[in-house]
Amino acid sequence: MVLATRSLSQQESRVVLALNERGRREATREEIIELLGGGPKAADHVIESLRRKGWFERASWGKYLLIPPEQGPDALGDSNLLAHASHIATPYYIGYGTAAAYYGLTTQHRNVIVLVTPVHVRGRQVGESRVRIVNPAPKKFFGFESVDVLGYNVMISDREKTAIDCVDRPALAGGAGEAAIILATASRRFDWNKAADYLERIGSGALVRRFGWLLDHVKAELSQEVRERLLRLAGRSRTAWLGLAPVRKVQGAIGYDKTWHLFVNVPREELHGSAGIGQRKAIRKGK
Q1: What is the mean pLDDT of the segment spanning 71-93?
Q2: Which side of the chain, N or C, has fewer Cβ within a 10 Å radius?
């Protein structure tokens, strides 16, 4: 296949085409110097030109992401921002509301990328988005996989872990109401045994209570076997709440639920839009 070089110079084309033929979507400054066979200054000039024309984006110091030729030099959307964020720390995963948006579980526009990592690093600006660093407890750092995002391998929490994380920390998902919507949407394609295994692995009865109550709230369709398992796991916690700690009851809060032994300190209005949306609607056949 012959790739169009567009406005690229001979040297620029050499870099882009060589990386593409090798299936590479990133390169270091040293690799580009070696590829061109010249000096550092000449390579820096080519790199800067490729960045200016939209073929390269800097991932970190001395590392660059290639915008694949077939996508054109204007392919600088949110997905590429995830690729940029992935270079901030290792190990890591993209999670919470950012992962939910990737899977289409939320329609909220987000200008914050949530990067989960045990490494203590500072957040930074990536394009027009801010990267927020979340340092999880070791027992919660799992449930992610490599996903191909426009030719780049990015670690993102899977659907089940994304929903669980959002219920665990609703503030990183857009609030309790949005976490409920994310859970409801995700539950339609859940591996329920995997979700239950994840909750058991985390070992937080309070989290299971919030998760279970929200499943009932959105009317998610799960088997009685899984539901009973969640109720057993919930028994590991004596006190739990959803929303703010019930030291001060929020005005219009839903209140205490006897099934899950959970105080829902969230206004009914905030959760109104998610009530019952986990049910699969039957399609009526025409007469």
Answers
A1: 72
A2: C
**Using an 8 Å Cβ cutoff, are 135 and 91 in contact?**
no
Q: What is the mean pLDDT of residues 136-140?
A: 97
For the ranges 69-83, 107-121, 145-159, 232-246, the lowest mean pLDDT is seen at 69-83
Task: Write 260-264 long-range contacts (CB < 8 A, 24+).
Answer: 260/209, 260/210, 260/212, 260/213, 260/216, 260/231, 260/234, 261/209, 261/234, 262/209, 262/210, 262/213, 264/213
For CATH 1.10.10.10, the residue range(s) in the chain are: 10-71
The per-residue pLDDT for 286 is 46
Quick check: helix, strand or coil at residue 178? helix
- Domain 10-71 part of CATH 1.10.10.10: yes
Concatenating the DSSP letter of every residue in 186-255 gives HHTT--HHHHHHHHHHHT-HHHHHHHHHHHHHHT----HHHHHHHHHHHTT-S--EEES-TTSPPTTEEE
Identify whether the C-beta of residue 142 lies closer than 8 Å to the C-beta of residue 201. Answer: yes
Distances (CA, A) of 98 to 1, 17, 173: 35, 32, 8
Q: Give 177-205 pLDDT, tens digit per residue.
A: 999 999 999 999 999 999 999 999 999 99
| Enclosing H/E stretch for 116 | strand 112-116
For residue range 267-282, what is the model confidence (pLDDT) as tens digits? 999 999 899 998 876 4
- Exposure string over 124-160, b if 16+ CB within 10 A, otherwise e: bebeebebbbbebeeebbebbeebebbbbebbbbbbb
Q: Which residues contact 167 (CB under 8 A, 6 or more apart)?
A: 179, 183, 207, 210, 211, 214
Distance CA 206, CA 151 (A): 39
**Residue-level pLDDT at 131:** 94
Whether pTM exceeds 0.85: no
